[in-house]
Write a structure and sequence with these properties.
Elements (H helix, E strand, L loop, with lengths): L8 H10 L6 H12 L5 H5 L17 H19 L3 H19 L39 H36 L12 H19 L1
Bound molecules: zinc ion.
Length: about 210
């Protein structure tokens, strides 16, 4: 696995791209937790569960089916408390949880990832695996090998996530600024904040009309 911290890069990038109006802070925090959740299966590793078993490391908790269950449960039970629409909660939690298994397929060690459990027990690796695998035993992380792992995660996870997140945020803001003047303001002399709110509606309406 990439270290548990690096899985947070995906939900954080998503939040930067979509913005806090679509993904409120509480949903972003939950998405970060869900991105790390699949590695809860290391508990089984320490209890002696076989690595190749469905409940073993990179087993059922790393599957798309597990991500779908997490997303459905989050949308059904927490959408109101999170202050977001159930569909948004489901999409964000699905992407964040499923991204964990996909990132694990890019690592250069360990077992393959059972992405398709419970329908298939096949273990998958990506054809290109640039990320150094992180040890299951956390104490081995603090070594020269640990520094190499951090360097590979910065290069292959955090850097692309930062580029996508910042780039997406800039595009979103540019689209919002461009859509602003097309909407009539709420009063003859709208405040700057009111203009910005009107701009947000203009972009959303325009996007819907183009479909
Ligand atoms: Zn993992």
């Amino acid at each position: 696995m990439p270290s548990v911290f690096s899985h947070a890069a995906v939900p954080l990038a998503l939040t930067c791209i979509a913005g806090l109006r679509l993904i409120p802070p509480r949903l972003a925090v939950l998405a970060v937790a869900c991105a790390a959740l699949p590695d809860a299966d290391v508990i089984g590793y320490h209890l002696g569960v076989s690595l190749g078993a469905p409940l073993g490391h990179r087993g059922i908790t790393h599957s798309f089916a597990f991500a779908a269950c997490v997303a459905a449960a989050g949308a059904a039970l927490l959408a109101r408390r999170l202050g977001a629409r159930p569909a948004i909660v489901a999409a964000v939690l699905l992407a964040s949880t499923a991204s964990h298994g996909l990132l694990d397929t890019l690592t250069d060690g360990g077992h393959g990832v059972a992405l398709l459990l419970p329908f298939s027990s096949e273990r998958f690796f990506a054809p290109w695996r640039p990320i150094h695998v992180s040890p299951l035993d956390a104490s081995r992380f603090f070594s020269e090998r640990g520094l190499r792992i951090v360097a590979s995660e910065l290069r292959w996870i955090w850097l692309p996530a930062a580029v996508l997140g910042v780039g997406g945020a800039l595009v979103r803001r540019a689209l919002g600024a461009r859509g602003g003047p097309k909407q009539p303001g709420p009063s003859p002399s709208p405040s700057r904040a009111a203009s910005r709110r009107a701009g947000g509606r203009a972009v959303f309406t325009g996007a819907r009309d183009r479909r």
